[in-house]
């Protein structure tokens, strides 16, 4: 039987790419990426999906960092005896914890984008926060931010244009740091090992 991977929907495509390149026998079960807007629900959703799939696979793993669950996800994975991705969030996985800490030390008002957020910014941020209908709320959400950094996994002109649009829509300057998949491939392989 293959390995079942409960994955953050924002990482699922990247994990599928890694699995394909490395011929990994996994089945990915993505959860909605919009759960990040309600991180208190992530642990219970992961728990429910693990219960649903555990008998279908010889092994399961969780492709989430902590993602704002403040340890609740770790409680769930301990109960199920599975592993998860390391770090506090996917920014740590893509850019490395040290680099994220350095960025935040230099400017705590940094708003991060990944490729997924660049592609889905209008839906994930503008619509979800109501800024599409009430742009005057921009300062309620972003007043204390000073810049946007796109941690680019795959830098294309199309994504660069979308990143510029995303930053402009919240009135912040954009910086681009090409980080690739960072530690994601290595961490996925570690999740699947014994």
Name the structural class: alpha/beta
CATH second-level architecture of the largest domain: 3-Layer(aba) Sandwich
Regions with pLDDT < 50 over 5+ consecutive residues? none
What is the number of domains? 2
> How large, in whole angstroms, is the Cα Rg?
17 Å
If strands are numbered along the chain, what order do they take across the biggest sheet? 2-1-3
The helix count comes to 9
Query: What separation lies between the terminal Cα atoms?
Result: 15 Å
CATH topology of the largest domain: Rossmann fold
Beta strand count: 6
Give helix % range: 40-55%
In terms of DSSP E residues, the strand content is: 15-25%
**The CATH top-level class label of the largest domain:** Alpha Beta
Give helix and strand order, one letter per element, not per position: EHEHEHHHEHHEHEH
**What's the shape?**
globular
Mean pLDDT: 95
Give the biggest sheet. Answer: 3 strands, parallel
Keywords:
Rossmann fold; alpha/beta; 6 strands; single chain; 3-stranded parallel sheet; 194 residues; 2 domains; 9 helices; globular
